[in-house]
Amino acid sequence: MKYGLFLGCNMPAIRPDVERAIRLTMPKLGVELIDLEGCACCSAFGTFPSADEIAGLAVNAWNLAIAEESGVDPIVECGSCYSSLRLGRDKLLQDEEKKKRVNELLKIAGKEFKGTAQTHHMIDVLYNEVGTEKISNAITRNLNGINAVVQYPCHTMFPSEIVGFDNPRRPQMLKELVEALGAKVQGFSREPQCCGGAGGFSHGAHIDAVKFTQKKFDAITEETSAELIVVSCITCLMHLDGTQRDLNKGSDDHKYSLPVFDYNQVLALCMGFDPKEVASISFIPRDKVIEKILANPRS
Amino acid sequence: MIDLAKANKNLWKEITEESGDIRNCFNCGTCVSGCPAAEADPPLLIRNLARMVLLGLEDELLEEGTPWICVTCSQCEEMCPMKVHPFEVCLAIRRWQSQKDETYIPPAVTEIFQRGHTQPLEKVQELRKSVGLEETPPTIVKFPELLKKFQAMLRETELVKNNDFMFRG
């Protein structure tokens, strides 16, 4: 298994500990990662796709052409990057005119989009290519005795025809991946609700986005005994972490204090990698969960 | 009172001909029922926006800021029983607004033009080093000659040609 690691913008800049965790864990599971040299923003929906469709598709095609040149499919953690690259490729393959126009633009940069590379999400590769059994066998510590909840990345659900790999109505792959590390994953009423962090919602209607996400935290607190949230999308990670900090502002009780981890970060901790490298950046402290994992050798 | 005599009967073609047939929309509201941004104040109500497009209410639509609070989850895209592609309609409205009024153009496009990314990847070297990573990621930020080609490509798009004052590379 060989993939091109598509970094996007937020992960390498704001949460490089997630990038580090991915780079350390995937090869241990037999997934070779090569760099996609020269990739840019995916393009995110709120950028070129909101101003000029052809420009947005040209940026998608730029990135996909780099993967094609390298002879690999891109693998990506960020939900928005995943969806933008998938939807962009689909549009280009469905519409000869657009593909032609985009290739005229790419030619200026000495590139060509053929459509031979398809983007895969981290959960898809971990679940469907690596498999939970291999993951369970690759860890030296585990999450036995720890309760968790999961956040499914909306961009890997809809539109299922183009982005889907899990059941969009009842996703379960991330849950099973977390269970493969020994945790008990608890369901709750608002589990399918998106994190609220993507697109223009949290920028354009910040207070409403915070309230929207607060409902999710309240449901987790009332209905589960979760000690952590596991995500697999950089926006989910940053938003669920940052929103709790916002909600705690102006009060001393730190009511919202659920640690949030990307899946590969928890996996890296279970593989024995240094928390300073793979799980060092967050607003809500994660030390207690990290200590528990480190003190939990796999039986 | 809406004066339909002043409406642009071809607005739906202008905005959404590329993204599916919006004329199939019968206003069921499924797109709104699962929408996170429908909980905002003022709410994003894709159904209403689709009505505005179909009725040709240009002036009202140009004033609408709500398409820009879409969370991009695309749940509406999945649920729409008439395959109107509400998420694509939302993006198409944003593009139409950006073409009519340059103040709608998201500033992030100029950032991506200048550095290839929405984030300043050239300024995070210490943070990356602290977690054991290469200081400059192997993206476009590490290859200035590729960034030049990327910019040359974008310079030929309608967006950059029509708004070149925003894109000084």
Map the helices and strands.
The complex is a heterodimer of chains A (299) and B (169).
Chain A: E1 2-5, H1 10-14, H2 16-28, E2 32-35, H3 53-70, E3 73-76, H4 79-94, H5 96-108, E4 120-121, H6 122-130, H7 132-138, E5 147-150, H8 160-163, H9 173-179, E6 184-185, H10 201-204, H11 206-223, E7 228-231, H12 234-248, E8 260-262, H13 263-270, H14 275-278, H15 287-294
Parallel strand pairs in A: 1-2, 1-3, 3-4, 5-6, 5-7, 7-8
Helix pairs in contact in A: 2-13, 3-4, 3-5, 4-5, 6-9, 11-12
Chain B: H1 11-16, H2 30-33, H3 46-55, H4 58-63, H5 75-79, H6 86-100, H7 108-115, H8 125-130, H9 144-155, H10 158-162
Task: Tell me what the structure shows.
The complex is a heterodimer of chains A (299) and B (169). By secondary structure, chain A is an alpha/beta fold. Chain A is built from 15 helices and 8 strands. In chain A, helix 2 packs across helix 13 and helix 11 (206-223) packs across helix 12 (234-248). The longest helix of chain A has 18 residues, at 53-70. The mean pLDDT of chain A is 97. Chain B is mainly α and 169 residues long. Chain B has 10 helices and no strands. Chain B has helices at residues 11-16, 30-33, 46-55, 58-63, 75-79, 86-100, 108-115, 125-130, 144-155, 158-162. In chain B, helix 3 (46-55) crosses helix 6. Chain B is globular and about 60 Å long. The chains are: A alpha/beta (299), B mainly alpha (169). Chains A and B meet through helix 1, helix 2, helix 3, helix 5 and helix 11 of A and helix 5, helix 6, helix 7, helix 8 and helix 9 of B.
